[in-house]
Amino acid sequence: MKERFKTVLLTLLVAASLAQSYLLIYRLPGTGSTAVSSAGYVRTDEMGEQHSVEDTLYPDRMIIHMGEDRHTIFYPDSAFYKLIYARVQARDFAAFQVQPVSGEDWGKIAAENPGIELSFGTGLPVPLLQKKMRLSADAAFETADIDRIWIYTGSGEEKPRAFFFSSNGKDVYEAKQLDLTVQDVLQHVAFGEDWTPYTPLKKHTLYVPSKPIVLAEAVLETDAFTSDQMQRNLFADPAVTRNIHEQDGSEIYTDSKRSLQIEDDGRWMTYTDPAAVPAVRADATESVLSAVDFVNQHGGWNGTYRAELPIREKKSNADSDIGVRFQQYYGSLPILGSGTVRYGYMSLILQQGTVSFYERSLLETPEAAQPGPQYTLSGGQDLIDRITKVEEVHGLKVTNLYPAYTPRMNGTTLRLVPGWVAVLSDDSAVTFN
Questions:
Q1: InterPro entries under this entry (predicted)?
Q2: pTM across the whole model
């Protein structure tokens, strides 16, 4: 009996010793461990939140067409937006057939037929959309980038029609098989009946509210990630980095290969890694997946973001590079950073899945803001006149219009001021109330 007890005790001691050795060598997450990725990056701190790629894939707005040329718009985070998008995600779409966009009068369809139109901004590759929606894609459809999904029901038709618009502006794919009913579509459309009416302009490419919109400023107290934290997250051995002070007040940290520049009084960072990568055609889907993983490992997410791609950054002209931009949102509205306050987005350039450029804000903010002053955003004819004035002053057409926040800093306080954003044909933006 005594020998058996000694054997059990010895076994427990050996097991405890092995466990202790394992912890000393590898250490558990959150105990000061240093994890080095295959790309030579290091992550030491738990900083921002972790997100999946699915968290960044959603429409920038939802246009509800109610027939008789009546329309309204739901923006992200609103109750009806979330309800409709969840229902659409649960439906199956299959048997896609391509046709030219010019084959239909889409303005007439929007005016006469009840339906829902989901806008995906610059567009998403079908493989990314499949992470959010149940799409049975054939070889032709799965190579498309989709910037709009339009589901409507025509007068006297027994089932609705669903169209997926290519961001090339030429092609549209119709899902000949879908498990939505006419009643489903009409129920979704009914949510917009008591909402703010929107008037279509320019053959239904712009929509303006029929009356002014009142929005409150959001006020947030800020903290910030430190340069030491970012060094430990971006350099394999922070001990060998050198610090260079620039005349404009910025600081550059480099290990002779990569560089980290801290600007705007510690509120903004730019990271570059000029590692040479073979110049082969980049894949947008893999680039977005890699970009999300990179942010998770190197800083995390300081808010809610929506993926925008592909973009061609001025920092890179190579066809093998893909730029991925994550637009930050507060509530239902995007945050449009200005020249005076850089805030509201993350931007990455990837070469074959390796990040060569990464810029972002270092500010941390709470989830809930304090309400600030209310702003009345123009609507109706006043807003139409403002759009016309913007076009006259800049000599360019307004191609998009949406409400957004402009960030302003007062010490450590971040103010998000609401206003209209008019996007011009050269992709520049003008803000006004």
A1: YycH (IPR009996), YycH/YycI_2 (IPR042274)
A2: 0.85
